[in-house]
Write a structure and sequence with these properties.
alpha/beta, Rossmann fold, Alpha-Beta Plaits, six-stranded mixed sheet, four-stranded antiparallel sheet, 13 strands
Length: 308
Amino acid sequence: MPSPPAIEVVDLVKRYSDVRAVDGLSLSIGAGEVFGLLGPNGAGKTSTVEVLEGYRTADGGTVSVLGLDPVDDGPALRPRIGVMLQEGGLYPGLRPLELLRLFAAYYDDAEDPRHLLEVVGLADAGRTLVRRLSGGQRQRLSLACALVGRPEVVFLDEPTAGMDPHARATTWNLVRGLAERGTTVVLTTHAMDEAEHLCDRIAIVDHGRLVAEGTPAALTRDAGADVVTFSAAPGLDLAGLAVALGLPAAAVREIHAGDYSVDAAGTPERIADLAVWMRDRGERLDALRTGRRSLEEVFLRLTGAVEQ
């Protein structure tokens, strides 16, 4: 018999006055899965997660976390989940070790606070006041607080925001370790590389609705292959480049300032034409890549940030 999902969301609706922040969203998240919830600002991600955590009441649909209703069964559910907030939730006048000891006292079987500080890379900052920690250090402390109760489900909101590359890599390894021991991780992030590397499955939401769901590989594969991306100076003559490549004008786009996408196969002939066009204009061609679309481009297309 397959195990029941750790989280089940069916036709979830959350309203704020006349605004439907979440509009009939359905999700099923398995035990031990790292699940990414992605969407632009205002897409309904935070409202969805807050309903799952029991901090908001659904206006429609049903929600189950570990087989419990997050609101009605809140006292039974809260000791079994961990919540990492992007901001706040930490007492600025305490020290990290004091804070973790305080949080550990709320649980019957808590992690050792000193060990957790080592795991998140804060062993040397254990006696520094929270208000004196850097933004990245506070993020790591918030992560430690979310894990101190050995949760079965943990919600991570932008877990690596403000972290340096070393701390970011440490956090990624920690998330993978959580999944390996059976913890379900629900991750919200704007870092597409983070979602692509960490998540078993991803749901992309926009205007409160599910617009795509699947593994990172499936999402990029289903969006179609045959794309060339490169970096160069911002503001290239896209119409002229399209003509040089023998493509419609809409096939060549500037995704971000200096980052370009060509909707076509990266054949040797086309790459050569691109290189010659850039050379003739004295432009430098950087970071050339051919293959499938990136998760970031899929996200931008699905959420309407880039024209189809």
